[in-house]
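#lab-general

N.A. 3:47 PM
ok so I finally got the sequence cleaned up, no stray characters, all 502 residues accounted for. can someone with queue access submit it? mine expired

B.Y. 3:52 PM
send it over

N.A. 3:53 PM
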Amino acid sequence: MKIEMTENYRMNYLSNFSKQHPFITILFAFQLFRLLLLPFFGLMPQDAYYTFYGEHLALSYFDHPGMIGYLLRLFITIFGKHVFVIKLTDFVVTSATLFAFYNLAGLFLSKRKQNLAIALFGSTFLASVISTISTPDVPLLLFWTLSLIAIYHAVFMRQKLAWLLAGLLMGLAFDSKYTAVLLQFGLILFLVFSNKYRKNLLSGWFWLAMLISILVTFPVFYWNYQHDFVSFLFQSKTRTGDISKFQLKPTLFLGTIGTQMFLLLPVAFCGLVLFAFKFIKKVLFKWTLPSDEILFLLCFFLPGFLGFFLISPIYWVKINWMMPSYITGLIFLAVFIGTKSAKVNIWLAAILHVAFAIEVIFYPIQIKSDDTWFGWNQLANRVEILQKSYPNTFIFSADGYKTSAELSFFLSQKIYAQNIFNQPALQFDYVGTNVLLLQGKNALFIDSDPGFHDLLKSKIVPPELKTYFNKIEQLEPIIIKNGNQNVRKFWVYYCKGYQVLK
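B.Y. 4:20 PM
back already:
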């Protein structure tokens, strides 16, 4: 009888809680959904690549700073090297981000609007992406949000020590991803336009915060100094070169709209654009600035949001580049959006997340790309078995990083990338690889065919293989199945006599 009463009490408590706090209940429901989905989610190439970061600890890395790699290394050290642990890292860090976001929203909004804001954010695919896929954006959004809380306390509440914390957190955000520099930019922009708080620009505490943020990023700069600033050049020179060509491609702009609408879903995205446009129009044509609170939100939202949209007609803007901007963007949206509109967005999110779960668990729609979670473990098992028939071979691929990183995760041996062909191989070039030691050895080359149409061997042998190996034998392709359906294909080449060319 006592147990029954306890169960009834729990049920009544949960029922009353959901009625009194519907938006918080929505957040918990989405997070529980994501947690239950984790065991079904395979390893994405990004997961494997940033795990590779963590397995080769360094002050920084070729593509990005190393925070995501450090976090993955920490969780793997504690819980072991498993796909679920990789996903759990993203889920735990993102849960911390949601908690930080809730506290940040409470600084600007009433309790009802604060709950609405967290439900909007927590139900988006933005939250799902960073909860399930390891990218530098996972720690970036956490430290970005924490930085904004510290900055708020420093500026609005005049807490001097908060400046020190803000500097530390802004530095850690930069140690996660270079786009965190928009934090300092947004802070300066806010102080310049705010009549009330502009005097902080002359404050020693402000400049001390800036100094601390720079000192915290020292490992990233020092690593770049040691490696001829290769990471900064990779992230800037290549992209600015493409942008400078200024070739208008409207499809890129439409693609950016589509990907961002996917992240936030239509109601939230369109509402954000609409309300932001109204404020921009008011500033430009009436020379009227919003309140300091709204100005603060916009200064950390508009630079990244508008900046990337401005280049989107001439350059492909990746889906995650605008993510940090949405932290204050969604709080800004919550100020104006109605409850009915928010619920429409949340219901649409729920429906689409169910469809997403079906795709993750059953994989009914084949993804014609290597950016998929499906089949990598099968591939590694097949390659491991194949290697036993061709002993004393090394394994490599040359598709950027995806196949090499995945095989590196699942196989207990060193996997090589296109550095075998003396081509740039991202972080694979910075882990002490000496290809001279492979002189004369045989290899298995694994080449993905993401858009395959048949199960036949390739009619073309990659010319690089002929250049770097004495003899090439194409083996039967590896076919990855989902039940009885063929869903992925990898060409396999047995390469004899590796020749190191300079």
